[in-house]
Amino acid sequence: MTNRHLTMLSISCIFVGLTYSTTTFSKNAKTPTETTKGTKLTYISTIPPNKAALNAIRECIKKNDTRLALIGLSLNTLPREIAHLRHVTELCITCTHLTALPPAIAKLQKLRTLCLATNRLTVLPREIGKLTSLTTLDVNDNHIQTLPPDVGKLINLTKLLLANNHLVSIPGEVGNLRHLTTLLLDNNRLADIPPEIGELAVLRTLSVRNNRLTNLPPEVGRLTNLQTLHLDNNRLVTIPHRIGTLTRLITLHLSGNRLTTLPPNIKHLKNLDSLLLSNNGITVLPSEIWSLQNLRRLDLSSNKLTDIPPEISQLTNLTTLWIGRNKLTLLPSEIGKLANLKHLNVANNRIAEIPSEVANLSKLLSLTLANNNITRLPRGLDKLTQLRHLDLQANQLVAVTSKITCLSQLRILNLANNNIASLPPTFSKLTRLRELNLSGTSITDNDSKLLSQLKLLTVLKLNNTKVTREGIRNLKIAMPNTEIISDFD
């Protein structure tokens, strides 16, 4: 890079499914340089004077380009010439300082995609409702507090992206958007959703994460084409029974609410693949949940569950089960029937022993048992030959048997904060280990030779052990490519 010429940063900006490629232009040039082949696109992605934006608009008009992207410019307002872009179908003005959209935007009657993400807009003009050809409106990442009712006139809209704003309400007119398939409302200040939401008959994705919802309108049950429903991190106390009518639902995320139970009608969600319920106050699971036999991902962590019933064995397609941070004292032996399970997390409970049937989980890749009361390695652990990640930290283990060395695929092993005094002689057979945590154990310099043979180890944690300064020094010499973390650093 020289003072005379500036080569653009390699930025590939993707918004609402559109990819705007990079461009290169001279710092002294009057117009940007077109670099996208086969696509009419005028593109700027640096921070030139406002005049450059005006020149880009004029160039777009001159070439009759149908796509214009002004990305990364320092713009508070748009040039009035924006009204002349009546031929443009895709307009992307993102990552600027734009504070207002001029009413003249209404003259762009051919616009199908309008992307205004990552600006400083506080309102949208009523004239936005005149862009009746719009199919995508993206105003994510702005400061918008209210939407004009005129947004309901965008009758051809299929995607409405309003995440990361300051919205406190949604006008009921949104129910007029009968072609809407995607509605994103994450990270706003919404206390409710208007009942008119039920009019969006073809809606497939509804995401209202990180808001202030205390309830859902029953009309949500009319969204019978819904496949994805994200309601994480709100203040929901109950879920309407009519949720059982959403039979096409594949993803239902309800983590971070105030739920204590689920409606029995959840049993009708036969296509459900992912159900996330962490960080609620659930004490008992309804028996109907075990009929969701297409579930692959179930998160029940951080609730108040005291037991997991044997019926969990009916969820034979589960690949991920998170039940950590509850009040469990045991696991049912039937958990061994979850033959497709790959990830099992039961950390932060009160479990003293893992049932031997866990050995039947031949596809298991990660097993997290941290912060329990486990006194010995699970029986049959050596049969989990596909295991990559094993976390047993903060239990009451007093020994590690040689069976652990049968886990030939193990990459990460955490044995920290146990009463382990030594490692088995065969420990060096864990040749694929990348990370090993032995902090808070009682291992000594006698184990150093075993550790030094783990040639692929990248991180070795030995804080608060009985390994001496000399032992650490010798390990660092023998393992120059390993980050060794100890009390002597």
Mind explaining what this structure looks like?
The protein has 489 residues and is mainly β. The protein starts with a strand and ends with a strand. The protein has a domain at 1-151: Alpha-Beta Horseshoe (Leucine-rich repeat, LRR (right-handed beta-alpha superhelix)). It is built from 3 helices and 24 strands.
Annotation keywords:
mainly beta, Leucine-rich repeat, LRR (right-handed beta-alpha superhelix)
Indicate the topology:
Elements: E1 5-6, E2 13-15, E3 18-20, E4 25-26, E5 42-44, H1 50-63, E6 67-71, E7 90-94, E8 113-115, E9 136-138, E10 159-161, E11 182-184, E12 205-207, E13 228-230, E14 251-253, E15 274-276, E16 297-299, E17 320-322, E18 343-345, E19 366-368, E20 389-391, E21 412-414, E22 435-437, H2 448-452, E23 459-461, H3 469-478, E24 483-485
Parallel strand pairs: 5-6, 6-7, 7-8, 8-9, 9-10, 10-11, 11-12, 12-13, 13-14, 14-15, 15-16, 16-17, 17-18, 18-19, 19-20, 20-21, 21-22, 22-23, 23-24
Antiparallel strand pairs: 1-4, 2-3
Give a brief description.
The chain has about 500 residues and is mostly beta strands. It has 3 helices and 24 strands.
Tally the beta strands.
24
Question: What's the CATH H-level superfamily name of the domain at 1-151?
Answer: Ribonuclease Inhibitor
Low-confidence stretches: 1-49
Give me the oligomer status: single chain
Number of helices: 3
Q: What does the largest sheet look like? A: 20 strands, parallel
**Rounded average pLDDT:** 90
Give the termini separation: 41 Å
The helix fraction, in percent, is under 10%
Structural class: mainly beta
Q: Per the principal axes of the C-alpha atoms, what is the gross shape?
A: globular
Rg, Å, rounded: 29 Å
Tell me what portion of residues adopts beta-strand conformation: 15-25%
In N-to-C order, the SSE pattern is: EEEEEHEEEEEEEEEEEEEEEEEHEHE
**What is the architecture of the domain at 1-151 at the second tier of CATH?**
Alpha-Beta Horseshoe
Can you tell me the CATH topology of the domain at 1-151? Leucine-rich repeat, LRR (right-handed beta-alpha superhelix)
Please identify the top-level CATH class of the domain at 1-151: Alpha Beta
